[in-house]
Q: What sequence folds into this?
């Protein structure tokens, strides 16, 4: 049995070619933040994982509707070794609980790679969300909308499902019900896969579609914009102040939260910070920086042992 996780870049990023080290960075993040194994015959206890894990990554460039949508499917074997060399089964609940944090880590690594190559990002509010999304600054919102047909279909279906829910129950759905409705909307609007195309064929089709809104001169400017300014890594960061800011942001969103929630917020903070101040060096090595964040606030959740940390 294998576990599958999909990490997805923002649609505005379009077709890019991340260095293999960025994909390796995602796998490292999964290993450091998401794995424990069960031990004992009844699976009532957990132990840490020794060494690495077995996984393979598949990179896709488009959505089910053919829009540019860079994402990576990471398929992980559910067998790992404990520190005694025995083969155990991965704690699947923890893996799924880490999905958002892994995706945020993936986006952070891709943004850092593109910024190293002169691509500039900016924070944008999308669909009224309180959480800003980092998007390539040179790409107009109209182009994002053109290539967001999958999202548009899901939102339309979700609106219909919410209305039906309110008519049936007499009140608006709570957060748990809303998540289930969103999942249903995603499945209801999911089309069958089309015949595979090469990246060159996809890029040509995308450019032709984009030409319905923009001239060839505009498209060259949009896709060719690069900054020639060297951006050194940030020299000094006030760890205590940053840690408090991150924990405050998590606390504002949740009444209770976990290490994975903090890891996700650390990556969101790092992407926004990098736009104004340059790359955050501590995060270039993966997730350990997130583990160093919270103790500075006096909240010691992340200092606990693995079985206590991930009940």
A:
């Amino acid at each position: 049995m294998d576990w599958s996780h999909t990490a997805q870049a923002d649609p505005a990023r379009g077709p890019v070619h991340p260095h293999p080290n960025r994909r390796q960075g995602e796998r490292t993040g999964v290993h450091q933040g998401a794995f424990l194994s069960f031990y004992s015959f009844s699976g009532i206890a957990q132990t840490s994982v020794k060494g690495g894990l077995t996984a393979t990554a598949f990179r896709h460039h488009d959505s089910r509707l053919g829009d540019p949508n860079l994402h990576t499917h990471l398929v992980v074997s559910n067998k790992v070794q404990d520190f005694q060399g025995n083969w155990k089964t991965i704690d699947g609940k923890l893996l799924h609980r880490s999905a958002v944090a892994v995706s945020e880590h993936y986006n952070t690594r891709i943004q850092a790679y593109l910024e190293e190559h002169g691509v500039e990002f900016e924070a944008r509010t999308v669909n009224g969300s309180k959480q800003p999304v980092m998007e390539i600054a040179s790409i107009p919102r109209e182009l994002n909308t053109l290539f967001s047909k999958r999202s548009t279909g899901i939102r339309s279906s979700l609106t219909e499902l919410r209305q039906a829910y309110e008519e049936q129950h007499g009140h608006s759905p709570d957060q748990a019900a809303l998540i289930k409705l969103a999942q249903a909307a995603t499945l209801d609007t999911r089309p069958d896969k089309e015949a595979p195309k090469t990246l060159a064929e996809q890029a040509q089709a995308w450019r032709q579609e984009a030409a319905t809104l923009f001239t060839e001169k505009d498209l060259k400017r949009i896709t060719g914009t690069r900054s020639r300014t060297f951006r050194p890594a940030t020299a000094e960061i006030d760890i205590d102040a940053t840690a408090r800011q991150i924990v405050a942001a998590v606390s504002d969103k949740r009444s209770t939260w976990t290490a994975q929630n903090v890891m996700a917020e650390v990556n969101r903070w790092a992407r926004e910070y990098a736009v104004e101040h340059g790359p955050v060096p501590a995060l270039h090595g993966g997730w350990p920086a997130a583990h160093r964040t919270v103790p500075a606030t006096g909240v010691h959740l992340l200092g606990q042992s693995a079985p206590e940390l991930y009940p």
